[in-house]
Specification:
Blueprint (H helix, E strand, L loop, with lengths): L1 E6 L5 H12 L3 E3 H10 L3 H10 L7 H12 L8 E4 L5 H13 L6 E6 L2 H9 L1 E4 L5 E3 L18 E2 L6 H15 L1 H8 L3 E5 L4 H22 L2
Parallel strand pairs: 1-3, 1-4, 2-3, 4-8
Antiparallel strand pairs: 5-6, 5-7
The structure holds BIS(adenosine)-5'-pentaphosphate.
Length: 224
Amino acid sequence: MELIFIGYPGSGKGTQAAILSEKYDIPKISTGDILREAVSRRTPLGLEAKKYMDKGELVPDEVVIGLIEDRLQQEDAQKGFILDGFPRTIAQAQELDRLLHKFKRSISAVISLEVSKKRIIDRLTKRRVCVQCGRVYNLIYDPPPEDGRCGVCGGDLIQRSDDREETVRHRMEVYEEQTRPLKEYYGAQGKLILIDGSLSIEKVRDEIQRKLNEIMNSDDSSSQ
Ligand code: AP5
């Protein structure tokens, strides 16, 4: 299965991609995570990307496309993958189509998580992330253990530098201008699935699962 998640920052892409990654045993590939890793290692790529990320701007297309091209060729991505945060522009989507065509693969579905702006601010300003294993929490909706450390590995929990309210507002504008057009792009390919992302994490998970089952069942019956 080859899936893409799109949606406002904080719509729950990473949370749901992690759930599906475990269920289907395929990697969650997050350009945001790859870039943050490069920032924390202070590589040349990380230092360049940080300038954009801190302002809530998109990193240039050629940088992220290069990262994805390498990542999709790794062993663990051969049986499927879940893209979280890529593509984010029409140019990235076209390049992804080109790459997948070259690898004789294609996207199974594009899941767009639909959440109101007001809810996004609330979710992101209360998000906390484990510095060690990357597990994502929310102080209200998915709280960490009482000792305030990661429940998976005991690591410190931090607030992402781009989760300040002002930067979150700008990231939403960037989404509207540059990423939202992807809904039309994938809608025209018949691959877009709209999911109400404002429900609880469990309800969103179940709704995604229901839609994916429909797709898998229709694929099975058409191949018989
Ligand atoms: P990236 O890391 O991809 O950030 P984002 O898309 O802005 O998305 P987030 O990670 O903020 O949110 P999410 O939708 O994954 O929500 P989450 O599940 O964590 O990108 C960061 C930056 O990197 C970009 O700004 C850009 O600079 C650069 N970048 C990355 N990819 C790029 C690309 N392709 N091109 C160019 N630049 C790129 O959930 C959020 C919170 O809500 C959590 O606390 C969670 O616990 C909670 N939550 C989740 N679901 C629910 C629910 N259903 N109910 C209640 N709470 C929930």
